[in-house]
Structure formats: C-alpha cells, structure tokens
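Database export, one record per block. Field names are fixed; values are copied verbatim from the stored entry.
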Amino acid sequence: MYYSRISKKLKEMLASKQEAESLFWEDFLCKLEQWYRGDIPDLFKTPCPREEEKIRVSNIKDSSVLTWFKLHQQVKYLKDLQLTDQAFSGMRLLDIGAGPMPSATVFKSCKIYCLEPLLHDYLRIGFPFHYYDDFKYIHANAENIPVEDGFFDAVISVNAIDHVDNLNETSLEIRRVLKDNGLFRMHVHYHKATKWEPMVITDEVFSEAFSWCKNLHKIAETKTSYGLSPASDETFVLWSNFNSS
C-alpha cells in the first residue's frame, strides 16, 4: 500500500491545509505511474498512454509526469481558459497557483512565471522540474508576490484561486503586479469549503474582489472542467477582461 502506517483519509483529517495538499500530490504521483503503466484505464478522463505516446526518460516516475503533462495538462490549460497557444505572444505572463507542473508553458512566444507556494513540497515529493525550458517558478504566496509593480502583461489562473488564504489580499497583489490595462483570465471553481480548498467563491464574491479590473466579465459557466465531473452544487466559471480572438 502507498500509505503503509496510516490511512490516507486519516492523514488528511490530521493535516493542515498545506499538508493536505501535499498528501494529495503524493497520492497523485503514485496514480500517475499506475496510469503510465496501464494499471488504470484512465485518470481524470485521460486514457492511459499508448506506447507511441509515452515519453521515456531515466525513470518511470519522471516519464509518467512528462507524459501526463503533454497529454493532459497542456490540453487542459487551453481548453479551460478557451485560448490558443499564441494568446500571450510577446508578453510577460504570470500563472497563479501553477501546481507541480508548469502548464502555462503551453503558451508560446512569451516569458512565463509560475507562482507556487508549495514548490519545496513538490520537489520533496519528487516532481521533476529540470526537464522544462523557458519558465521561472516564483516560490511565494499569492498575497505577497516578490516582483515590482506592473511587472506582468497578463495574469492567468486555472482552478487555483480558491486555494489562497485571502482572496481580497490576493486580488490587490495581482492588481499591483499587473500592468495598467493588462490581460486577466481566471478559471474559477465554485464549491463548498474543504481543508485544502477553503475559499468559497460566488459571482458576487469574485466580482467584488476584482472590481478594480476594467471590463471584467464572465466568459463561460459550466458544471464540468476538462477531465472533471464535479458534484451538482459545484460550478466552473471563466472570468476575463478580454475576449478570445
């Protein structure tokens, strides 16, 4: 068993928010290897890879992560954000809550920064970062981003803003680091509070928190996200201040 001394459920009950998230990613990394080997038929609705689809590097862990990144994560970013890979060409782009893979690298011809407070946890768990090119991780919370004012031309986030500790502080920090008239697009998960996703967001909460963002509007609202079929009381909303070309 992956957890030999204590059950996953009990660990999550005892864990802090950060610890609970780390436990999720430890378990997910184990599932990725099973998916890669074909021991499970699909993971988040992505079928296990055919032999010709597999990326092969020095070990199965890294091979499974890189294959998942190619077949699922990069596809997810384009579909959930409803953008093409040239959407931020020539820009400096920030991805809020990037997770253990730099999925924003799907966007071409731009300088990519991935904000992630759990970076050290991902390294400890074993997610590989040395295979990816042309991006920088920022190890910090969204409430305190260590860059100068107006540093970014565009800010995105995919199913991550509900993980922050303080939505209003995060919003003000995004406003500070985003250029005037910068591009803004977020794929937001509305759901009941959990330990690792404590932020309860509604249209009113989001629109009030980001009221400073000119031309902010709802692009789409669905009951599903790429690879997910949530509970009936959950919703995914795409917010932006620009329309796709």
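Remark 1: The helical segments are 8-14, 17-37, 60-81, 119-125, 167-177, 203-209.
Remark 2: Residues 1-7, 10-14 have pLDDT under 50 and may be disordered.
End of record.
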